Structure formats: C-alpha cells, structure tokens
Amino acid sequence: MIPGESQFCIQYGITRMTVRQGLRLLAEEGMIESFRGKGTFVTRPRYNELTLELPDSQPVSSEGANVKLLGVGVVIANNEVASILKLRSRTKILQIRKLLLLNSRPVAFDRRFIIYRKGQPVIEKEIHYAAFPEFVSKHMGLTASRNQVTFSAVNLDEETARTLGTSAGKPGLRIEQLVLGGEDQPLGWSVMICDGERYRLQAITKGFFE
Amino acid sequence: MIPGESQFCIQYGITRMTVRQGLRLLAEEGMIESFRGKGTFVTRPRYNELTLELPDSQPVSSEGANVKLLGVGVVIANNEVASILKLRSRTKILQIRKLLLLNSRPVAFDRRFIIYRKGQPVIEKEIHYAAFPEFVSKHMGLTASRNQVTFSAVNLDEETARTLGTSAGKPGLRIEQLVLGGEDQPLGWSVMICDGERYRLQAITKGFFE
DNA sequence: CAGTGGTCTAGACCACTTA
DNA sequence: AAGTGGTCTAGACCACTGA
C-alpha cells in the first residue's frame, strides 16, 4: 500500500486533484490500483491482460496490402458453422470469402460467416475495408458487445495451400474471430488462415504473457 | 468534432472538471480523442491496438499447468542468439530450457536466453513462476522498458516433436518474446513452441483486429 | 485574436472500510 | 470514529491552434 492521497498533498504542497492526476497516470500504466475505503496499492503483475500494439506495417491494413474478393453470397450453413453460430441446421447465412494479398502475393485466406438479415444490402466497399466486428455490427444494425479471438497453428490443407500458392502440410497461422452480441449470442464467425512462412503477428505488449 | 468542454458546462450546468471526467471515461474506451488547441473528436476505429483478456484457464499459469525445468546454465551464444541479442559472437549467456505441462502432458517447449550477469544468482523459483520479462528485469536489476511479442506458425522439427511427445511436421504455435531495456537494447529472448493440436491462445479483444 | 484542451488551486460532501 | 478514495464546485493560468 502506498500513502493516502492527502499524505501526498501535505508532502508536496499540492492539491488532491493534482495528486489524483498523477496517480491516475500510474494506474493507466497498470502500476497501481485503488480501492475506495481501503487505499491505493502497487499491483501484482497481471498475466491475464495483454495489450498488443500492432505496428502499422502489419499485412492487415498496411501499405502493400490488398484484398481480393473471392465470393459473396447467401448459402446454407453446414453443421460446423450452424453449431458455432448456434443456428438450426440448414439455416441461410451470409458467406464471404476473401484473399489478403501482400505485394500481389496471397498471404491469407479469410472466410466469414454472418447471420443473414433479409433485405440488408451488402456493400462491397465494407467487405473490403471494414474489420470483421465492424462489418458484422453494420450488417446486423446493432453493436457487437464482445469479440473473441483465437490464435492457433495448423497444417495447410490441400485446398487452402493451393489458394495461398504454397503446398499442403506447410504451417499456417489460424486466426478465428467470434463476434458476440447482447447476451453473448453469436452474430458472426471468421476464420483466417495465414501462410505461416510469410505472415507473423508482431506486437509490443503491456502486461506479461509468460 | 464534438462541442467544446465549456459548451457542455453551460448545457448541463456542471463544472469543467466534471465534464473532463466524463470525457476521460469515453477516451479510455477509445471512443474520443482530444487535441490541445484543436478540439475533441470521435475516433476512427483503431486497428493497431488490441487488448487481449486472457481467460484464467490458459495453459500458462492455469490450474492443471506445471513447469518442468530441463536445464539452466551459462553457455556460449550461437550466431542466431548473439545476433538477436546484439552481442559479439561467442559471448556467454544464461540459457534456460523449460517444458510446460498440462495435466502431466507436455504442451510447450520454452527456451530462454538472457544476457549473463556475473555473480547474479539464478533463483529456481523465479525460473518456474516468473513471466519472462519479469525474470529478465530481476536478473538484470533494471526494469525492462518494452516487450516485443511475435506469434507465428511452424512445423515441429524432429527434436521439438520428440520433446513434446508428438511427431515431426505437426503444426506448432511459436511465441517469441524479445525483452528490451532502455534505448531498446535487447536483454533477453524467449522462444516458446506450443503443440498446435493441444494449445490455442484464446482471448476477448477490445479494438479491431481485422 | 478567440477558442480549444491541459493543468492546477482550495475547498466540499459522499460511500466505503477498518479498527 | 477515523481514514480511505470517488466525485464535484468555482474559479484560474497556460500552451496551442486556426482564422
């Protein structure tokens, strides 16, 4: 525990608002935590929160990056998609398939499945440039409450490998996103498979990972 | 652009400090951004910052998790390590090799390379339980300023596969950490290779990824 | 120059915790 | 009851921006 706010006021001859400003800066950096009635404490290291600051040079949304639309359409959900989106089997969904290019070479293959809203126009520009949770929110006409991301490693299957211009069995980074609305009902699911040899996710972190 | 702070004071009959408190809450959520002399603006969606909230059930530091120390010692850095840590070739470094177990089965193989400080004791407990940046800071006796993490996908090589109890060519998630001190000089490097079939990194995000 | 946000003062009342 | 942090008032001066 560190001294109380009024202690600092006396010690440095400054107002409590000013002390609080200083403490807030430390709190934002995750160094301290305050509890009403108890006091302010130096935090224990946190392992469960990790802020990634992605450099602008990431393939996604960087300079040499480009998007090639492979297909947009309303299809019948297969069992996997239906189960993940918690839909009855054989429900209609909106499917988008994209290819991410970096310097005109494919680096990632992206499939997106969104709960289908009849009569809702699908704007091509948004497919190209909107981030997935953003796109889902717009299509559904509501704000997504949470976005669950899963990173994993896979071996590229025959089809994906062909699409990415590499060979089956090579490593692939799989980035899955599940966009959740109110009461955590799933609104959309996205699976992006990246060429493991040409794509890496690099970031500066705050907080500890391991 | 949203109205000026003094506008809100008049409109709601409250103090500027109170208005600022409200605006700060919005700023912390990433909804608005302020610029001195210019004004306060609604932010464009940010793609470059991603906060991962890792659930406590992550293999790293979760219940069934365990650490097996494979070896600790001072060794001569090979060319790869020397180049990454920006050391002259054939410099002595501290090397730690660990195995992460989940329910008594290995899920990840971790190698850590830290700039060697003579006479600095290496405490076994810290090897087991401290996060990498934390361990490096303690060993070097200074605070690490930044931590750069890289996620990528690889195929397991013969040796790693054997260590993880699986077979070569299977997918592996590679998590690399480079701990940087003041003036961004490298202090330590860690490479963790996870069994792609048994480990996935799952998180709730704030901000957009793609 | 007027308008903006950033910082600070010197108070005040409140909700909460702990002894 | 004493001490803690959370919130708010009613001012003030400053650095910066843009017309």
Topology, please?
2 copies of one chain form a homodimer.
Chain A: H1 5-12, H2 16-28, E1 32-35, E2 39-42, E3 49-53, E4 65-76, H3 79-84, E5 92-102, E6 105-115, H4 124-129, H5 132-140, E7 146-155, H6 158-164, E8 171-180, E9 186-195, E10 201-206
Antiparallel strand pairs in A: 1-2, 3-10, 4-5, 5-6, 6-9, 7-8, 8-9
The structure holds a DNA duplex (19 and 19 nucleotides).
Keywords:
homodimer, 210 residues, alpha+beta, Chorismate lyase, 2 domains, 6-stranded antiparallel beta sheet, two-stranded antiparallel sheet, 6 helices, 23% helix, DNA-binding
Describe the overall structure.
Two copies of one chain form a homodimer. With 210 residues, chain A is α+β, with helices and mostly antiparallel strands. Chain A has six helices and ten strands. A six-stranded antiparallel beta sheet of chain A has the order 4-5-6-9-8-7, sandwiched between helices. In chain A, strands 1-2 form a two-stranded antiparallel ribbon. The two termini of chain A are 26 Å apart.
Task: Give a quick summary of the entry.
Two copies of one chain form a homodimer. Chain A has helices at residues 5-12, 16-28, 79-84, 124-129, 132-140, 158-164; strands at residues 32-35, 39-42, 49-53, 65-76, 92-102, 105-115, 146-155, 171-180, 186-195, 201-206.
